[in-house]
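During the first year of the project, the team set up a workflow for recording each protein of interest as an amino acid sequence followed immediately by a discrete structure-token representation. This format lets reviewers and collaborators read both layers of information side by side without switching files. As required by the reporting guidelines, we include two representative entries from the current panel. The first entry is reproduced here exactly as it appears in our internal archive.
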Amino acid sequence: MTSGTIVAEELDAAVEALYGSGLTPIETVLSSDSASASRPIGRNAPGLRWQSSPHLGLKELSAFTTELAALVNSGVSLDASFRVLAGAGASPRRLALATGLLKDILAGQQLSEAMSRRPDAFPPDYIAILAGGEAGGQTAQALTLLGEMLARRVDIRNKIRGALVYPAILLAMSAVSIVVIVFVLIPNLTPIFSDAGLPLPGVLAALADLPDHWPRYLSWFLFGTIVCWLAYRRIAGHELTMRKLDRLICRLPVMGPIVQRREAGQFARSAGTLLEAGVPLMTALQTARSLVTNRYLSARYSEVITRVPEGRALSQVLEGMELLPPAMIRLIAVGEETGQLAKMLVRIASSLEGEVQSRIEQLVGLLTPLLTVGIGGLVGALILQVMSAVLSINNLAYQ
């Protein structure tokens, strides 16, 4: 028998939270110091703290979805699955999330509806794919596909983070070197040259005022940052301007193809997943189009979708739009002819995602030598200027 305090919206919510965590409340009363708190007593119950909408990271969301998909695919009901997820050993955020979803499920809401009330935990594409699976009666399959999709995202993120460790260390050490040169070496050299009536050589003269006036420079930098942020916020609210900006991004030499293939992979995977779940073609295409974040590409996909009800095949309306590579369009045509469009779209999405991952890894791999050469040249130039100034002190001594 253990007593504790749990924070909840109401008394019933506190009781449901305890049941969801595998505990058996015996007596629950309102706490005297807060109207929103309660004091439950249960078996093996440590003190719990519950909140309505916790934020989950990508790795936590992937693990949560994979375990939920495994339980549902095993024939466990949703309410029982959430009780298992909120059982012993669950983290506070997972406990809060599972308990909140359990409450909404018991209140009669669909799983996608309950998750849509928690945008901090579940992204829009996650909810859209799950809603499509529920519409086709394929909730377990949709959860499985979501778990696989999130696992791939976690893998890509981990690879990028691992590749950026060395550049981050290089930047940090270079910043330390520049700070030592500007705030230690240059102030020690300045009196020698000023006493001789000579300026510091080279770029050192421009950096000599930085130690004394850095607060002013920092304030100007912060002011410029705030102005740029406000300007971006204003531009972000203008749909036409943002569409032109997204179009410019798509035409960039290196980033443009990566953005187009990433959006194409997202569109193909979402459409294929929804079609596999039994969602009608137009509904699946509209939902997949809504998940395209680039406004310019989203408008292009919308133009394609509006031509499908005219009786033309999806592969035909995609030709000439430059949204997918020609080889991928031929695969879509094969999928339409064989009645395997959903599986073909998922296969295309996997191919595009692999290509995007490969290009990102190449760019990150190229970043390391570029940073090494660039930062090494900058620090080396400063050190050469300092060494030149030090060697010129001997000349000053004979004047």
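The second entry, processed by the same pipeline in the following quarter, appears below.
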Amino acid sequence: MEQTERAAQAQQTQWRQRALVPVLVFLGLVVAVISSLGAPLVPTIAVLDHVSLSGAQWSLTITLLVGAVATPTMGRLGDGPWRRTVVLAGSAVVLAGSVLAALPLGFGWLVVGRGLQGVGLGLTPLAIATARDSLPEHRARPAVALLSITTVAGVGLGYPLTGLITEAFGVHGGFWFAALIAAAALTATALVLPSTRDRAPRPLDTLGAVLLGLALAGLLLVLSKGETWGWASPGLLALAAGSLLLLVGWTLHELRTEHPLVDLRLVRHRTVLTSNVTGLIAGIAMYLLISLVTRFVQTPTTAGYGFGTSVVVTGLVLLPFSAASVLASRTVPVLARRTSSALVLPIGCLICLLSLLVFALARSSFWELFVVMGIAGFGVGCTFAVMPGLIVSAVPAGETGSAISFNQVLRYVGYSTGSALSAAVLQARTLPGELLPSGSGYTVAALIGCAVSAAAVLVAVVLPRRAAPAPLLPTPRPERTVAR
């Protein structure tokens, strides 16, 4: 009888370990799809809820703001014994937000629901930390690479899914779909996620979390609302200055406190610093291109360019981006073995540069845009797939969640900057009295993107040689644990 129980327990343990990676990847994709859900729906929400386009934009902005604020705190809590609790609670909040956004309660409640969905952006770093701690090294490396690009691949999946569901079931149907997949992710995660109760608890740096949250919220608000408020408006400049002061105050606090929210001494390590700065710059180039392509294909042909496509067709243009990013995550281990992990980073940025150059020179037909997005997806996939592995190899096991969360936040800042930059360039190329920019505006914006990608290549090559290495004490990996 006892041997039978042991055998059954062993089988259950093996099943959970085999299912862990697929469930974590599914969780990452769900978070990415839900976070990008609002982008194609902004015009429809404006009409349905009788608000301006700038007002409807809050259904997208609030998700990113909440995600940027929640991610560092969730990452720090996830490095202790409460990781399983944090992941399940975060998933439950995403589910609640999806239901709230789906109910026809008005625009205010929709924004609240989208804000709750933003908590999900903090789950991917915890999934990466779980893969590192719970899997043997030969399985952990490819799992970490695949998890890192779920935030990228999910964008390409979210747009066409949103369009199809909205056309069939309306705006609220899209959010009910989000609730359905969020419930599935929560259930699957609860079944397989291992416990981390054996980890030593660490005090949460509450003041650091508040300072960083306010600083990031202010900076992201500046980037997302600059075009609406005016980049030179006194209110926007005051908000930017206040956010930067808060960021300086947070940095000083983190360097002095005994238990920091983000250990900035680790950020100084050449590998971590290179990954963070490159992630920020590569995020700018990535979202610059995505913003340009999605706007370009939806522009009416009467403008002399564009294709006047629907949201569904626009989403299909992004599918090669998602497919190529997943392919890149599979290719990165081969490239790393033949070259080095550090060399994959500039290679990925160089491929991103190529995609922007192709878009600047050739975008007159759909197949050219498919090629552009395929190249971009492969480049971004290589870049973001290798980053977590570089960070994981450079930080102690107890700092994995916090370090990767900080990298993720920098990506969010890069995404917002790229989106704002594309809008600013196109607006500058719009003649007075006209609603649409000239076709040359897209060329100029793409060439600026090439310069940004070139900067990312330069950082990825030069910074590791220039930055002084910060000594790190090796920390043994914790014992494997399984869900009880």
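For the second entry, the following points were noted during internal review. Confidence is low (pLDDT under 50) at residues 467-484. Residues 205-260 form one domain. Both points are flagged for discussion at the upcoming steering committee meeting.
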